[in-house]
Amino acid sequence: MRSLLILSGAALAFALAQTMLIPALGELTHRLDTDASGIAWVLTGYLLAAAVATPIAGRLGDMFGKRRLLVISLGVFGFGSAVAALGSSLELVVAGRVLQGFGGGIFPLCFGIIRDEFPREKVAGSIGLISAIFGIGGGAGLIGGGLIADHLSYHWIFWLGAIAAALAALAAELWVPESPERKPGRIDLRGAALLGLGLVMPLIAISRANDWGWGSTRTLALIGAGLVVLAIWVAVERRTRQPLADIPTLIEPPVLLTNVATLFVGFGMFGSFLLIPQLAEAPEATGYGFGLDATGAGLLLLPGSLVMLLAGPISGALGGRFGSKLPLALGAGITGAGLGGLGLDHRSQLAVIAWAFVMSAGIGLAFAAMANLVVEAVPPAQTGEASGFNTLTRSVGASLGSQVAAAILAGSAVADSPLPTDGGFTAAFLVSAAVAGLAAAIAVMIPRGAHQAVASRAVRSEPAAVER
Predict the structure, then answer these.
(1) What pLDDT band is residue 240 in, cutting at 50, 70 and 90?
(2) Tell me: the pLDDT tens digits for 174-213?
(3) Closest Cα partner for 463 from 253, 301, 265, 239?
């Protein structure tokens, strides 16, 4: 129980950082003397670093010890928080956010420790709780960030992250046992560099697409170049004896489909996290906004954040009885229903709270199930690596959802006003709902009972590739 509390605290520190700055972006833009394009790097730098660092940390945890890497990840995250807290220029704040992002291995390392150390009957529920914290932290971050933005300053958002990370790192070092599982090898620097480059180029293009245009040559070329690099990375990893990622395992249908569903659920979740605060803070004169401050906007998501705390363990219990495929498909479908409801009925605060509650229940079920599906699919020595890639796909989905939602709102604004229209919010919510519904359809296609077979084949197989 003590270890679970410590791991939950570590996961919460990272989850809060993903959204806590969103209500404070207006203050940051003014204080750092920048514009919307510049301030976007405060979010994008964090997501880019997290996407690159997550699978690497998972692999290193498999090699050198998950508890050791968890403490290191928390230390880097805390140091980055302190750099950003002390920063008074855009460059320093972005640098701190990038360092925070390099703590992205926290979630997969927590999953690996749970699988290695916890009793078998408690693994699914514990992973469900940690997974739910991803959503809880996202919602709570909007609330906490709003309070701090309204009453203090952005510096305190970062100081809170630094303190939480320091306490979690100390507790993990003192009271969390080291995982006995090891996967000896060496660090695949070539694979890490190719993976990082392949992820960074499309994410930069997505983050800048509102300025460049989604159909512009620059945007499409950067996305295409990133996809080519990722294809090269896959080919290189297949021919590497000790790769960063075991490609044959990752492309097995149960693992691949689970990761694709993760991408789409993350898309819908973060799209809504940006849409709801903007809707709530829009002036009442727009005909759809509520005119709330940052704190009030965050409070609209509070009931949903609380239900995520319950949905995670429920998902684990359902998965233990019926298989994790069921709560993943059910959760994605419920998420889509909640987002669809927000698109069609967001005229009152009560309606937004109710539909966000439905959406959050679905997210809690889905996030817990997807983590369990991946953990069940691979042998213990590959838990960190596989969980890292699952978390990576969630980060990529979050970036996609945020940027697409922002682009739809920006495209709906009329010439004489910078504010989006009500139709823009409707369209953005419905697009997010459709993507979540697609995640549910993909989850239904995951082969029943195939995950244990994947793990068994991975255990029996011997490396056949030749290092080049």
Answers:
(1) confident
(2) 988 887 777 776 777 788 788 888 877 887 787 677 678 8
(3) 239
Least Cα distance to 259 among 106, 120, 108, 48 occurs for 108
pLDDT digits (tens, 9 = 90+) for 446-466: 886 544 545 444 444 444 444
pLDDT of residue 10: 86
- Please report where in the chains the tokens 């809504």 appear, as a residue: 272
Taking CA atoms, 351 is separated from 133, 261, 355, in Å, by: 24, 27, 6
What one-character DSSP code corresponds to residue 23? G
Among the residues of 65-188, which ranges form H helices?
66-86, 90-101, 106-117, 120-151, 154-175
Residue with tokens 């997974």: 131
Give the Cα separation of 132 and 447 in Å (integer).
Answer: 24
291: left (phi over 0), alpha (psi -120 to 50) or beta: left
Q: Round to whole Å and give the CA distance between 316 and 297.
A: 31
Q: Which CATH number fits domain 2-188+240-460: 3.40.630.30, 3.30.70.1060, 1.20.1250.20, 1.10.10.60?
A: 1.20.1250.20
